[in-house]
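Lab notebook: predicted structure, single chain.

Context: the supervisor wants predicted structures on file for every construct in the current expression panel, including those that have not yet been purified. This is the next one on the list. No modifications to the sequence; it matches the entry in the shared construct table.
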Amino acid sequence: MNAEVHYPPGASYTSQEEYYAYLETAWVSLTIGADYFSCPACQLVLNSYDLIRQAGLGVEFEVEGDIEDIAQEPEYGND
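Prediction complete. Output recorded below exactly as produced.
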């Protein structure tokens, strides 16, 4: 999975509140590799990247999400 963060243009803010509001409008473009395909009409199942590629289907797809969709650094439990 690849993640690309997009920030809105015009990054001019004068207070911390404006800065946080600016960050809340950012979004993420995620590129995800396909490793499973199924068709509800014909019951076809392709359950690997290679089968999907050989069938000529797209092996990657892109979705939009929020900043929170990016995996954050794991917690270490040092509380």
